[in-house]
Amino acid sequence: MIAQNNVRSTNNDPVESSESYPITGGSNGAGTSRLFRQFGSLFSSPAPTNDPAGYVEFGSISDPVASSGRTLGTFAGVFCPVALSMFSALVFIRVGFIVGNAGLYVTLLQFIIAYVILLFTVSSVCAISTNGAVEGGGVYFMISRTLGPEFGGSIGTLFFLANVVGCGLAISGCAEGIIENFGPTDGTDSGSIPDGRWWRFLYCSSLNTLMLIVVLIGAEMFAKTSMMILGVVVICLLSTYISFLTQGPMDVGIPHENSLVNFTTARYTGIQADTLWSNLHTNYTKDYTSNGNQVNFAVVFGVLFSGVTGIMAGANMSGELKNPSKSIPAGTLSAVLFTFLCYMALSVLIAATSTSTLLQNNFLFLGPINIWPTFVTIGILTATFSTGLSNLIGASRVMEALAKDRVFGPLMSFVVKGTYKNNPIAAVIASWVLVEAILLIGSLNTIAQINSVLFMLAYLATNLACLGIEITGAPNFRPTYKYFTWHTAFIGLLGTAIMMFVINSIYALSSIILCLLLVIALHLFSPASQGAQWGSISQALMFHQVRKYLLMLDSRKDHVKFWRPQMLLLVSSPRSCCPLIHFVNDMKKGGLYVIGHVKVGEFGDNDSSNDPTIEEYTQWLSLVDHMKVKAFVELTLSRNVREGIQHLIRISGMGAMKPNTTILGFYDEEQSKDFFEYEDSPYKTSEFDGNGIKLFPYRKSGESKSLGVVDYVRIIDDVLRMRKNLCLCRHFHRLDKHMIARNNHIRYIDVWPVNIFEPKNEDAFDVVSQFMMQLACIINMLPVWKKLELRVFLCESETVSENSAAFERPAEHRLDQRLKLLRISASIHKIPEWNKDIDFAKHRNILKQFTGNSDSNQVMAEENINRSKLYMQRINQIIRDRSNATAVTFMYLPTPPATPSVDYREKCHHYLDLLTELTFDLPPTILVHGIDAVTSTTL
Question: Shortest CA distance to 400 belongs to which of 379, 387, 418?
Fold first, then answer.
């Protein structure tokens, strides 16, 4: 009985079909979501987000209700944090160190290189942030939603560490400024506060704790005061510019911790051409703050770049911005331009006024030469403290986003639980602890190199994300930021990659290795399943490449040397044929494997407006995942099974990558077994049972088959007429691969290269037998099957005569030579009773009438039919006697009866009856019929 919309069959009911186009709502849904976010003013439906505050953000406009909790605009939320982070400890503490060692030319070149990298990276950030709603997590959110959870999680983790290191860097700079102004100045213990390695660690820890308190109160307080802090820093910087223009020559003291020189003062000259000339070229010396390590281009650039890594500070505040898509590009670009001009002017003024001796031996010389030294002290403290706060806030927000996305599973669940009034308390405290660990390094210049490399890796990933999505040509990537191209992303990617290794090759290589290890670990162990929801650029890249290579794969250039099986397995119900699904997966040898299923019904018969195969497609994909087979799924809806199978054979695959072999279950009366319920089954699962409904129903005991004998035989004929190799599989519910691996009793894979219906001496050398041996050889190459011996049975149908031995030797010899030429390792076994007990000549003409080779249209007598069954039973007995230790048997499948013959229906029944008798009680058996040559003896 045929169900209205489904074929219920097992490997008893042969066929199953499937044709499936990967139609899902993922990409369309994502595209629609982006449109709603980008053009929120045109739509009334809000697009939900996962940001910490739980509000809705449209991306280009802000709805008063949707943006509740988001209070920051472009200037306060982006420009001020970015500008403050890019000034950091560099502007007052290390520009002199850079100019004094690298010279003005190289300093300006390094600033240009750094800002070019930053500018192109900002372009990528702007492109991503204007292509959809940006939520909490900043750069992590952007990368993860573009590159997918594995790359996003790994880069997000390293970006979190970069913010932690950046916070440590800023705190170290702040402590250095405090020591310079309030600590010993003459090498004695005089001063307001003591100095020393552990005293400095204490001061840094105190500053870190103060930042912790501020952030625990709330990031909004910092954001609201950032404008005032930036104003203070700008005033202090202006006082420095004025001091360069007004202060005359003077001697400046050398810090007491500088033990590399034996003089106590160095000269500040004011603006003089000679001073500028002397500072134009490089003059690398040793760094007195890092145990006298030699300074070089890489060290200088690492320190310089660490000071300008704050371009993501605005993106990190994305969860608090009213309109991230507008504020992030505008605020970040304007802050980059502003700080660039400030640094260039400061570098020129320093080179024109201070000797290289002063610059190399007193990194805090700006204080003594200032018209009011307190301005520099205030500038150092405010710039470094605000930068540290920004990095601590950024680190906690990234950590919170990682925890909410469950990238590391329950490992970070404490972060989600430790949130109070949208402030991630637990993440802030965890970040604070890691900053304490960074502070143990001590040297600011050493921390600066680590900081630069980690931030560069985050920038590299951002550029990579944009470059990848631009190359794939994804139609939904339509950023409103118009100054982005794949060229800008590529230059930014290349620049960051090169300069990472220029700064410190060991740190760069270590960070990349750590990133790759995180990618692998997250891919293997992460429970995060957001890849389908977020979208992964890997899917877009694979689509792009696969399409290109499919077009290059030309079926006209196929050669038999490179033939491989491309399987279409027709399945009615996978519940009853799990071992067969697994066996075909073994037999495909890296070729295409398609599991096909035909759903019987008329399109539009049911109440649903959708194609019913669309709803079932995801169930079949889950089945493939459960079975752990590398297969595609194809489903089709058809009025009957035979027509549906014709659909599947024609349309499965694409281009030159189409199935060349069709596999069906055998048509018999054996009772089906549910491998999903069977207690000892390796396929046992309750995944497909729910709400009292079992997915993939199968034919129960007493139910009639949905497919008739004649239709089944016609399907066999259809497959051969469509020039596809054919396999009929019987008894595969008995196959147990685990038993084969454990049990030494099972030792053989058997091949019977003889057409039992019309035996000839040439059967072992024809196309069908060669195809049969090829499949057996493929199975024998796999690890589980490799221990089994391949046996080929030589069955000759000639009558025994006096010269039989002389006659048989050439056939055996020919077969042995053919196997050697084909590189098939197999033993040949002759059957002594084959000619003694069976009169082949007597049965040949009778059996021919059941195959496509028959020229007879006569009706067969009942006596001949019974005699043929007895003949098959005798052949079956011969095969069974040799199959006690056999795992799988390959047998020759004769062609079915010719369609226009007389009594075609009767002949179909007799044909199938004889095949049933032939394969009765054998091990798992495959009846094979090959169409084309598949083996080659040439190189």
Answer: 418
Selected residue with higher pLDDT from 913 and 858: 913
The mean pLDDT value of the chain amounts to 80
- Residue 422 is classified by DSSP as T
Backbone phi and psi for residue 191, each to the nearest 5 degrees, phi listed first:
140, 160
In the DSSP assignment, the letter for residue 354 is B
Phi and psi torsions of 596, nearest 5°? -110, 145
Contact 19, 643 (CB under 8 A): no
Domains and CATH numbers, the chain: 74-529 (1.20.1740.10), 561-661+672-708 (3.40.50), 735-798+807-938 (no CATH)
Q: In this structure, which long-range contacts are made by residues 547-554, counting pairs with CB atoms below 8 Å and at least 24 apart in sequence?
A: 550/654, 550/655, 550/656, 550/657, 551/655, 553/655, 553/656, 553/657, 554/656
- Tens digit of each residue's pLDDT (9 = 90 or more) over 246-300: 998 999 988 877 888 888 889 999 999 999 999 999 999 988 887 778 999 988 9
Task: State the Cα–Cα distance between residues 728 and 13, nearest whole angstrom.
Answer: 12
Q: Which of 167, 135, 124 has the alpha carbon at shortest distance from 461? A: 124
For 851-875, the DSSP string reads STT----PPPPHHHHHHHHHHHHHH
CB 933, CB 897: distance < 8 Å: no
Residue 578 has pLDDT above 70, yes or no: yes
Cβ proximity of 888 and 763 under 8 Å? no
Per-residue pLDDT tens digits for 483-514: 889 899 999 999 999 988 988 899 899 988 98
Query: Region 770-789: what's the mean pLDDT?
Result: 90
pLDDT in tens, 873-893: 888 999 999 999 999 999 999
Burial 571-593 (b: 16+ CB within 10 A, else e): bbbbbbbbbbbbbbbbbbbebbb
Pick from 92, 29, 86, 72: which is nearest to 534 by CA?
29
Give me the mean pLDDT over the 525-535 stretch: 58
State the CB neighbour count (10 A cutoff) for residue 431.
Answer: 30
The values of phi and psi at residue 580, to 5°, are: -70, -40
Q: List, in order, residues 6 or more apart from 513 with CB less than 8 Å away.
A: none
- Would you say 281 and 100 are in contact if contact means Cβ atoms under 8 Å apart? no
pLDDT of residue 494: 92
Report residue 345 CA to chain centroid gap: 46
pTM over 0.85? The answer is no
Q: How many CA atoms lie within 13 A of 801 on its CB side?
A: 8
Q: Can you say how many angstroms the Cα of residue 251 is from the centroid of all Cα atoms in its chain?
A: 61
Q: At residue 351, what is the residue type?
A: A
**What confidence tier does 805 reach under pLDDT thresholds 50, 70, 90?**
very low
Q: Please state, in angstroms and rounded to a whole number, the distance separating the CA atoms of residues 923 and 323.
A: 69
CA atoms within 13 A on the CB side of 818: 19
DSSP lists the bridge partners of residue 285 as none
> Tokens standing for 532?
């389908």
Of residues 811, 843, 806, the one with CA closest to residue 828: 811
Residue keyed to tokens 């032939």 = 918
